[in-house]
## 1
Amino acid sequence: MVTNPSNRVPAIAIENLRFNYGDKEVLHDVSLDIPDRQITAFIGPSGCGKSTLLRCFNRINDRIPSARITGGAIRVGGIDISRPDLDLQMLRRRVGMVFQKWNPFPKSIYDNVAYGLRIHGEKDSKVLDERVEHCLRVVALWDDVKDRLKSSAFGLSGGQQQRLCIARTIATRPDVILMDEPCSALDPLSTLKVEELLLELKKDYTIVIVTHNLAQASRCSDQTAFFYLGELIECGPTGQIFTRPSESRTEAYVSGSFG
Amino acid sequence: MENPEQLIRKGVHHDRLKEGTVKAVLGGLTWGVVLVALLIFGRICWDGAPAVLKSEFPFVDTDFLTAKTETLHVFDDAVGNRHSLPATEYHAWVEKEGSDAVFNEQTYSYSGGGIAGPIAGTALLTLLSIAMALFFGVAAAIYLSEYAKQGRFIGLVRLAILNLAGVPSIVFGLFGFAVFVLAAPVFTEAPSERSLLAIPLGFTWFSFQGWNSSLIAGAATLACMILPVIITASEESLKAVPQGFREASLAMGATRWQTIRKCVLPFALPGILTSSVLSLARAAGETAPIMFTVAVAAKDDLPWEGLSNPFGIFQTQVQALPYHIYTLAARIPSSEFTQRAQYGSVFVFLMMIFLFSALSIILRNRVRSKLKW
Amino acid sequence: MPDSPTSSSVPADHPFRRKGRGTDGLFKAFFAGNAGLTIVILVLIIAFLIREGAGFFPDYRRELELYRRSGLEFVDLSRKDLTAHEQMSSLLNRAYYAQVNASCRNEFQRSQEAAAIVNYLGEVVAPAQSALQRVLDRAGEEGVPEELQASLSAKYQALLADALAGRAGKGLPPTPHLSSAERAGLLADLKSRDPLSTDDPALVLALQEQLSARQDAAAQPLEDFRAAIDAFADASVALDNLVAESGDTVKAIKEAATLHEIETTKRATLLEAAAKAKKPEDKLQFEAEARAAVTTEAVDFAPALKPVLDRIPEFREANAALSAALAGAGDKLPKRLEDAKAQRYLATFRKGMDAYAIELADTNAALVAWRNDLPIGLGSTILGFVTGREWITGGEWQDFYGIIPLFTGSLLIAVIALALAIPLGVGAAIYTNQLAGRREQNFIKPTIEFLQAIPSVVLGFLGIAVLGTLLQETSMKDSLSWIPGFPIQERLNMFTAGCLLGLMAIPTIFTLSEDALNNVPSSFAEASDALGASKLQTIFRVVCPAAISGILAAVLLGLGRVIGETMVVLLVAGNRIEIPDFTEGLGVFFQPAHTLTGIIAQELGEVPFGSVHYRALFVVGILLFAIVLGINWTAQRMLHKFRIGHD
């Protein structure tokens, strides 16, 4: 299971990143490589900056007026995503995101999945149909919803809605999927399904997942990064982080002494 | 990752252009509305301010605010000078010069003098109506937020409030006319013929024959109109008081009423007063409900003058600023001589309304920033 | 605490035992009573509207019955044809004058502009001029007082100089159709004109001459058309006379019947008083008065009507004359008129010909079939109110209460208002909520809130004093004459009222739409952003659809406000109680109209308490109440649904 990330070109490279909300620095000098087609888990206590970092990768933090990068750089596929001529919509198309609280649109199930394709100009209904079916099959939702594709997405259960959101994200064929605590609001059974889905998706996508659930990180991820108070304390293959961490704070956290 | 160079934008982005266009169009619409609002405001100030301002100290011409409304006489004298005088001055002038010295006379009703009568009438009407509406409205809000539980009665009350808020003002006028002017109960020596029901009480009659067109009838109509606004706003203020205050008080053995009086009302009061200032503006601004219930176009006395007893004030008809403007706009042709009365009244009226509105906005912001739980 | 858990009451001497009833229940009842007040008010509104309005239909039915029994209805059968004939002739006349005026529009405007300048100057110098005139008029006896004359002349010159420089009043009127040399010449002429002269300057006269010459020239080729129009118009003379004569007869019948009824009522009242009277002499007095009260015989309708009904053959003859004129007119009218407006009137006339011919034939049948003793049902009275095309009150002939003209007025004005307020209000809400910067928001929102605070009577005043004139003057511009309805004939019309009401509805729609947009969870927009949508795609594909029910509710509440608004329409809509003339196309919006709200405000103050008219106004009120309540209720339903959708 454990592979050496340095063998491949990193999907995302973070170099000495500093990040502020207003005057408050919340990420201090973080450097990290996210390897291609692997699952990287970010762990750490609440408020340690792991979600903030994740939200930098597709610049969704731009929505918050006071948020800004004050130093360092993030490179996606070697391209600095802060450069002024960056095509932001293309970046977000290539770096998809699944949120903590499922947020399907107030539209039908079909329209939710097709939304991303439509906004990128796909009008051919045949292509849409195929892609929607494919994505719903990948997230193992097809059999449940194939008869009610036109009904509202709000009629689904929480776990189903979250998987619908994942389907919506992979519909545009991103390279990277960012997941911000995707299971924190789900029951154990739904969580299990999402985790199985993650391992399935790993074949085609680079996945970064933020999680509070240490067991989940150890079950699914290939690489784990531990954050504490806005600093990257330690990053390495998951097995190593959980069994023989090099930092005492990491050990204290994974053993449950705090957090 | 394949083809990372896709991330770099080439040439002018089509979407950007589209976004710019849409933004410009919508922004144009929005600023158009804002501009119209400012133009209206500017026009009224430009034409109306001269009636109440003057160039030398203290810059305020109080004559217009304190003089009674009179008929304006415009005429030429023998030497070809044009005069424009309110009725009293005109009669004095005629007394002195003789009536054969007046040529080309034109008269404009209600356009001379000042607007003391309408201002006084509006002030009385508004204060009286807001006092009634506050008393009943706050009490109703207390019931809704502190006592009521879900149920049939409460559902009905909420439905009634919702519907009342939507009733057109002219229907309130009809209602006020039919109920307060024609059918409200009074004590009287001799019940009139149209009385709905007259109950003999021995020394006097209790007769449902209405209050006639009077200050009290108009104020009651206005109070009914602003009641839903006051209830809704007061309930919101009461609900904004944290539940913990009530629980703490009840836990110390206070009764419900003690809790409300000591731990809820004082904290909700600023909010209630703020909203009531806004209703004040609404009550002062409405014309349709007072047309048939209280307002008169011309009246020689101020409301409190020439009364036989102090309570008589409730039974008098009064002039009101919005009705005065209606009269000036509808019945008097616009000319350079009536402009002072027309624009001046509108200016004073608008300033009053804006003062109330601005006051309530300032108060609201103050209350919000001060009381944070 | 009770000794046993099953015990239901606290022991008498225990501190937990409640003492007395307590005042809390009283307080609760007091507050509940106040809350119930809202229900009471609503019930009172409904009850009193119905109480005052309920009597309307029976009373109106009685009036209509008298209308039928005394034969007014019979005469109206033919009068209706006459009115239609008049309208048809007026269409032809309008076509004729449109055609004539189309070719002398320029001359007309030149003449008008020159006259406006002369009038303006005349008004400004009037005080000095008339004083001077008076001085000279009296000069006969004691000679002209030189000093006074000199001072007045000086004053005249000063006023004239002021006027020529445009300093007085509104300034010199503009003259876009006069050349600058003509204008200068005119002003110079006026400047040098003798102070006492009121003769028109040469230019004005010349322009008038030009105009009439041009008109004559334009009328030349249309002589046949003119003759056809006159022939058609004259065809109604016979019927006109017939209707006038029989009208007088039936009116006399109705008056006699009314008088008799009043006297009978008076007698009944007196007899009642006599029965109640306590003193015998009072009783005798009342009874005597009662006997004297009735001075007229009850009208026997059938014989009284006989002379009118006997003339049915004459009516048919007159009708035939009209039909013949109508049939003849078809050929004599020109095939086409060059001017588009004239052609439209002509086409409307041609279209109406068949309908009118059928109507004339129907009248022939109706005249014979008409009976004065057919009863009128309550149902047809109500139908007559709801579908009535006329609202005529205070007339000598017969009052009609038909809601359609008022309803059409309210509706058309609401259409204009919403056509303005929806794009502006919703657009501004989208812009402010989604696209504007924070600083912009902080300016836009309070300004629009201020707009909401402006009382409607002030807007109405501005409509009369500023907007009406402004729109009318703008519509005079040559460059805008392609707009249907331009130039605007009436200063106060539905369009002006609609604009102002739109302005009133904008804040309502803006505020509520903005709220609805604000209430869309930001997670939707975030998800859309994360999928790579552009800002516009997020706004128009996710945020707006999610807020759509809130926006619709906002629009509906705006509509409710527009329909229920009184002062603006009362002041600005022009108050003409007629169904607008839809033959004008879109120009219909520039006609004056009356509204449901306006009619109540205007007429309630003037009607006798308890009369049919008074009750009719309350029925209009009930209708208004129901419409607005329905709109608001739908809006609330929508809002409610919207909230549930998001939880």
## 2
Amino acid sequence: MGLDVGEKIKNLRINKGLTQDELADRLGISRHLVSKWELGQRLPGYDAVEMMAEYFDVEPELLILGDSTVYEELDSCIPRGMKSETASKLIDEFSESLDKRDREIFLLRYVRFMSSKGIARKIGKGYGTVRNRLVVIRKTLREFLDRCV
Amino acid sequence: MKRSELYDVIARLDEDLQQQAYELEQRPVPRKQLFFSRILPIAASCAAIIITAAVVLSIFLPKMIGGKDPGETPDQNPPSGQTLSATKLSYKGLNDDIVTFNAENYGAKLISTDVKGVHANCSGVFYNQYTGELCCFEHAFLNASGISLPKMSCIDFAVDSADGNLAAAVIRETSGEKVTGLWILDRKSDKARRVPLPEGCRSYDSITVSSSKSLCNGILCLAVNDGKGTHSVYAYDTAFGKYVKLADSKDAEFVAAEFLAEDIILIKKDDSVYFINTVTNVLTEVAGETNYSCGGKVFSVKNGGWLAENGVVVAAYDAKTGRELSNEKVLVMTAFDDGTGKILLKDTTTGEETVLLDDYDGNCCTWSSDFSCFYAYSAGYGKLLCYFTESGKWKTGDVKGFAEKTETVDKQSYAVFENYYLAAGNAPGNASVYYTRKIVKKDIVPEYEDEKTDSAFWDEYRYLKHLNFEKETSFYFGEPAASGEGRFYEIEKDDMILFRDILLKCLESRGKVYRERRMEGDGGVVAGTLTCGELIVYFIEYSDCFCVSVEPGIPLTGGSDIGVYEFPKTVFENVRGSIVP
């Protein structure tokens, strides 16, 4: 179970009988960007999600539906009141400070919404190891963001 | 934060970071690719190995013992005197009630296995496929060495791939993986000797024994970081007690050194891979390659070649001279993300692929001891494959697996887990398929909306519910030391049962709000975590109570109350041990 925003956008577009160019025109963005979204190489910002949801007549939440546990884990790390833009910048910085293995685990979990078991298979580590590392990573992220408030 | 805001946090991450995450996700799953090169000589007088340009490949499908006629593809050049026989699925269970096989050690006599009971917490537990005996290296090592395993330590065993009685025992801390001791165990003589440090090395924590394949014929591969910027790879001869340095580097870290095959050592350094043929002393660099394997039958492994593939190009190398070869037909095993895969024969020149075995899950294959045959079993497909390396021909036969994953008896549902293991016989074309089955009674658990999408949660619930503390008198838990908090608590058996029931209540409460959310200003702090099987439990201490949440619940310091249960501190007053700090 991942965050298949791109897959959903593609399905909605195809169901509406649109090409990527046509969708890009409707939304006032480049086709290149639509392609990146659909391939999963980049996530559309929430304002773009809202725009697409209105165009396709669906709830925005439907597009960003993903493992609620991952959202909750992320929420537990971000100090109350911190803006999403600030949190993003700081998380960028935080991810640079991680070592290679932790970075891989962090990205796969919180950007690709991969399950712990999926991550363990992907990186060739034990499930327990991945779970333990995620606990440590979250704790460290919490402390890092708390310091920045 | 609302979900939309949380989503925005991720969406606003740097584009490069998102791209990196995407590429990570697309990266092939490691360990599932295996390539085998078949290299034939053309003339005995040739010193180098010359590759055949084309081979006619055919399938001969003989009748299986106990099975029906398998296939219909005619054999164009049936090999004479070669048959493929497979025994019917047979149960090779042990006395312990829960056993699984792990077919990692292809063709090894000792098969890693998980057991419950007296060896429940032991590492290095193996099943000997030939004698049927269970071997516990941890018990053997502790008895032979006479040492006591330090608290919060564990032992990793690298069993000699040529001699199942010899093993390297790497003692390390469970939290930070720091190595604290290195021994060699000889089960034949019941002796254990400490491995001395190489020259210039001050402590064992600068040593890395990278994998279970690090020991072969009494030679142990290990990597050393001298702490001053030099990284080295050594071979330690356990018989003579001597070190030989294989390679070193001042600017990059050697990640691993292991035996790919007898006499062939593989060294990984950043993105580069090196092979050393310890007979010819030839070092070959295979820069940038991501998958590799070594094999070859005609000249035996010592003179055989190896294959490297980076997802696009397949290259073959002569192990004796290091020369790159071409025009190879190679055996390729691929696995897809959904667990299914294929075994293919690939022409490295044309890229043409022939499927030999479909629906292969990547967990059941083996070589014969002389590399004359490669076997693979697809339980889902019900087929056993034998590939004859000498002739380049292959055969498949029917060996049906178990189709049912659940069974219902008297309206009670049972989940059925089975594992398969493949063993090469003593004659070419002879293999046996073993299986184990574990039948678990399915509990009736509360139904929640997310049950269908998150069965892993309920699998963990059932696992926890079945944890047996009869033979355990204490249970340790705490935060990993690397996080900076090293508090550990010991709970006696009876209290662990109480604890388990508390945790089960936490899980059952999922979806219900037990209490109002506390404000962070109340002074909550994570007091500790418990790793119990596959679960992680958070304890958050307040002035008058503990709040317990269980992953995949969430800690109380943020988010919703899913999976949170509040206990007044008085609940823990009767618990022996020091839960309350």
